[in-house]
Design goal:
Structural class: alpha+beta
Number of helices: 10
CATH architecture of the largest domain: 2-Layer Sandwich
Distance between the termini: 63 Å
CATH class of the largest domain: Alpha Beta
CATH superfamily of the largest domain: Chloramphenicol acetyltransferase-like domain
Helix content: 25-40%
Bound molecules: isobutyryl-coenzyme A
Radius of gyration: 26 Å
Number of strands: 19
Length: 437
């Protein structure tokens, strides 16, 4: 029987696993190429995965809600329609490359001891578990002793993380082992502190958080734990850009087919300031600062389900206002309709969150790790302002807004953060009211 292995796809550069949230097919189903097979969720994005082949599903190895490493065999498709009676363990299918058209992705670990252990052991360890074991100096014997909660007793990420937590808190652990630990992984696990107990009364309603909400919650806690946040605020007089936008928005839409709001103008000012202040366009990696060459600006988009996602405008500093407007509208639309590609939410080097559309004026946003700063834009409002003129001070009605910048105080001091923020405000204030569209 010619068969084809459906493997967990690689959903992005840094993604090593995904959760199968829904199967659209079951064993015995006949499928055609491009039929949707399953929905997979990662901590970045949800995707629906189509079939690359025609055939009959003969085996599904993982149930819904299973967390599966990239490259693992999720299902087997018979290409000639024959259904063979098989009783493979989930773990064995990975080695059945001889009779399949496509081999699952190879584990990329270089840890010889753990790799060798696989031959000696009846257990299979995913690439992710092996990488963690290697980074944390988990010996073969230790790994073998971990009780797995996955299919067929497979050790999952949560099992090894729980083991590490108990091992690290054990006083019997020799100190030397801890010192030899490599630098912290890029996405540190969030240590959940015990929260005070909550009493639930008869009139209260309890709502379960959905998966994305839990991920957002974890990311927020992690960000606050990783970097000490400070927030600076400036006020900007954006009268000229408001007059320009109001005057040109209809003509802009007619000419380019896209509506222009204030967001692309904010993004243009931010990208220019980031190019001038490269330290703000960086990440912290242990004791090193990684200055990013590209200016990739993430935009926080509120989704209809109440969650938030941050698609990224790549190389924002190289785009003109038309390009920024089109990309922003495209990404915001894709975000609201769950159509973002995983690559479109990766690689951001700075984030903007616009709460002005909710009528908010000032806020203290949380940094989108591993970035080091985030800008919040408040509502643009008409205000009385004192203007200095050659004939003396006058009070005039001006369009004003507050800009709030939260930044990582490990590497950005108030002087740098404040100067960077002021530069964004200067770019907005100096917007050319006669700019051609
Ligand atoms: N001032 C005045 N008017 C505004 C502003 C501000 N800051 N922002 C938007 N608007 C106007 C905008 O120009 C539109 O007006 P018209 O063009 O005249 O129709 C209108 O409000 C609606 O704009 P829209 O939101 O549709 O489009 P925009 O391009 O401005 O924003 C977006 C795109 C994707 C950012 C937005 O749709 C969105 O999702 N915003 C929510 C972002 C969010 O939830 N962030 C988290 C906030 S919580 O950060 C936070 C600190 C903590 C509390």
């Amino acid at each position: 029987m010619a068969s084809f292995n459906i493997v967990m796809p690689k959903l992005g550069e840094s993604i090593q696993e995904g959760t199968i949230t829904k199967w659209f097919v079951k064993e015995g189903d006949t499928i055609e190429e491009d039929d949707m097979l399953f929905e997979v969720a990662t901590d970045k994005v949800d995707s629906e995965i189509p079939s690359p082949v025609d055939g009959v599903i003969t085996k599904i190895n993982y149930e819904e809600d299973s967390l599966v490493a990239v490259g693992e065999v999720l299902a087997v498709v018979s290409l000639d329609g024959e259904v063979e009676e098989t009783e493979p363990e989930a773990t064995d299918s990975k080695d059945e490359t001889a009779k399949t058209d496509e081999a699952p992705a190879k584990a990329e670990t270089t840890d010889a001891s753990v790799d060798d252990s696989r031959k000696l052991s009846n257990r299979f360890y995913s690439p992710l578990v092996k990488t963690i074991a290697k980074e944390e100096n988990v010996s073969f014997d230790e790994l073998e002793s971990i009780e797995g909660s996955g299919v067929g007793g497979r050790v999952q990420k949560k099992d090894i993380m729980a083991y590490l937590e108990s091992r690290d808190s054990s006083a019997s652990q020799p100190a030397a082992k801890k010192e030899s630990k490599p630098a912290a992984p890029a996405a540190p696990a969030v240590e959940k502190k015990a929260a005070p107990p909550v009493s639930v009364g008869a009139n209260d309603t309890v709502v379960e958080m959905d998966r994305v909400r839990k991920l957002i919650a974890d990311h927020m806690v992690m960000s606050k734990q990783v970097s000490p946040h400070v927030t600076s605020v400036v006020e900007a007089d954006v009268t000229d850009l408001v007059i320009w936008r109001n005057k040109n928005k209809d003509a802009f839409q007619k000419k380019y087919g896209d509506k222009i709001t204030f967001m692309p103008i904010f993004t243009e000012a931010v990208a220019a300031a980031l190019a001038e202040f490269p330290m703000v366009n960086s990440s912290v990696n242990g004791d090193q600062i990684v200055m990013k060459k590209d200016v990739n600006v993430g935009i926080a988009v509120a989704k209809p389900d109440g969650n938030l996602i941050v698609p990224v405008i790549r190389n924002a500093e190289q785009r003109n206002l038309v390009g920024l407007t089109k990309e922003l509208n495209r990404l915001a639309d894709a975000a609201r309709n769950n159509k973002l590609d995983p690559s479109e939410i990766q690689g951001g080097t700075f984030t903007i969150t616009n709460f002005g559309s909710f009528g908010n004026i000032i806020g203290t946003p949380i940094i989108n790790q591993p970035q080091v700063a985030i800008l919040a834009t408040g509502i643009i409002e008409k205000k009385p302002a004192v203007l200095e003129t050659p004939s003396g001070d006058v009070i005039a009605i001006r369009h004003k807004m507050y800009l709030s910048l939260s930044y990582d105080h490990r590497i950005i001091d108030g002087a740098l953060g404040g100067a960077f923020l002021r530069r964004i405000a200067d770019h907005l204030e100096q917007f050319d009211i006669n700019r051609a569209i």
